[in-house]
Amino acid sequence: MARTAEVVRNTKETQISVSVDLDGSGVSDVQTGIGFFDHMLDAFTRFSGIDLKVRTQGDLHIDFHHTVEDTGIAIGQAIRQALDGFKGIYRFGHAYVPMDETLTRCALDLCNRPYLIWKVAFKTPKIGEFDTELFKEFHHAFAMNLGACVHLETLYGDNSHHIAESGFKALARALRAAVELDPKTHGHAPSTKGVL
Question: Rounded CA gap, 88 and 86, in Å?
């Protein structure tokens, strides 16, 4: 059975369409109107192995906030739909990703009890024109709408670009492990409750 989904989200602030294929090969086709954000989502796609297509039109004349947060909402919703009740997956994933002087760790649980622990501090308020505070907004929106408990921590680092990118790659690698099909679940949700 194909583990794919499409989500369309239209508001007064953003118009977004997202499609995902959990069993893809990491093909990225992302256009949000924000170059650095596209770069981060490209990295997320490549290292998660999830095919991702995103088309976002947002109110960039105001700022980047709505575009970044709402794209996180839509991607989280699409992956959640593709997971079909979290059945048959490994559920947990973790990764350490070094990038030059930076090291970031991500651990996540696809449990339908969303939570975000965010221990990431940026050295600068912006990367180019991108407000670094928006990275937390993206990850929070993503986790809440996916139904994932995400713990993301930069253990050390100096360069804001490296801190951001290692975080997206760590999230991607952890998610890649969690969404993998586990034959020992026999297609059921991996929980003592029997459902997630």
Answer: 7
Buried-exposed string 166-194: b where 16+ CB fall within 10 A, e elsewhere? bbbbbbbbbbbbbbeeeeebeeebbeeee
171: three-class secondary structure by DSSP: helix
Which residue segments constitute the domains of the chain, with CATH numbers given? 4-185 (3.30.230.40)
Distance CA 44, CA 9 (A): 21
What digits encode the pLDDT tens for the residues 65-110? Answer: 999 999 999 999 999 999 999 999 999 999 999 999 999 999 999 9
Residue 118: how many other CB atoms lie within 10 Å: 16
Check whether 192 has a pLDDT greater than 80: no
Largest CA distance in the chain: 50
Q: Which pLDDT band, with edges at 50, 70 and 90, does 179 fall under?
A: very high
Sign of the dihedral through C-alpha 53, 3, 8, 116:
negative
Residues 192, 194: Cα–Cα separation, whole Å: 5
